[in-house]
Specification:
It catalyses: D-glucosamine 6-phosphate + acetyl-CoA = N-acetyl-D-glucosamine 6-phosphate + CoA + H(+). The protein is α+β, with helices and mostly antiparallel strands. The chain has 6 helices and 5 strands. It has a single domain, classed as 3-Layer(aba) Sandwich (Aminopeptidase), CATH 3.40.630. The longest helix is centred in the last third of the chain and has 15 residues. The radius of gyration is 16 Å and the shape is globular. The mean pLDDT is 94.
């Protein structure tokens, strides 16, 4: 689309040293070559029309988000430079977003005015699961986090996924708990 705007500068993805990834890939894929007819890139303003929100429904409840709401949220994220890194994998033949993962950067006063990263909203379309794409997205985020200044990276996940995430260097920390208050579904 002619007026597509990327959420962040894609050149930072070129700086990722994929030789330091945690995963083993058979067959070999990488952020530069994620697979046949696939392209890894930042979320763009045109991804509303490429099924980004439909993809997220495979992860959680999305609700009825209009194109206007999507663009408003996109613009608010873009207006927070360095705060949101949403990666998408696009099928270049169908122009459909088929996988996504988010790095949210939380700016702090602690740790020398450092930044903490959080992995959010990791999802691969059911039609593309088993092709190492979730693993690829996680490796990209774990390599991107220190590149953008994060002193640590964390995530919340369901119990059955703990072993998967530990392969990327995540670990449970003693005396740490995850609590939540929900104000709506």
């Amino acid at each position: 689309m002619e007026d597509d705007i990327s959420l962040f500068d894609a050149s930072i993805l070129e700086e990722i040293d994929f030789s330091k990834c945690h995963g083993e890939y058979k067959p070999a894929i990488s952020h530069k070559n994620p697979g046949s007819n696939l392209r890894l890139r930042p979320l763009s303003s045109g991804d509303f029309n490429r099924g980004f929100l439909k993809l997220l429904t495979q992860l959680t409840q999305v609700g009825e988000v209009s194109k206007k709401q999507f663009i408003e949220r996109f613009n608010s994220m873009k207006a927070s430079p360095g705060g949101y890194y949403i990666l998408v994998l696009e099928n270049t033949e169908t122009e459909e977003v088929i996988a996504s993962a988010t790095l949210v950067v939380e700016f702090k006063f602690i740790h020398n005015a450092g930044a903490r990263g959080r992995v959010e909203d990791v999802v691969v379309s059911k039609d593309y699961r088993g092709k190492q794409l979730g693993k690829l997205l996680l490796d990209c985020l774990t390599l991107l986090a220190p590149k953008v200044g994060c002193y640590k990276l964390s995530l919340e996940c369901k119990d059955p996924l703990v072993d998967f995430y530990t392969t990327f260097g995540f670990s449970k920390e003693a005396q740490q708990n995850y609590l939540v208050q929900r104000f709506w579904d």
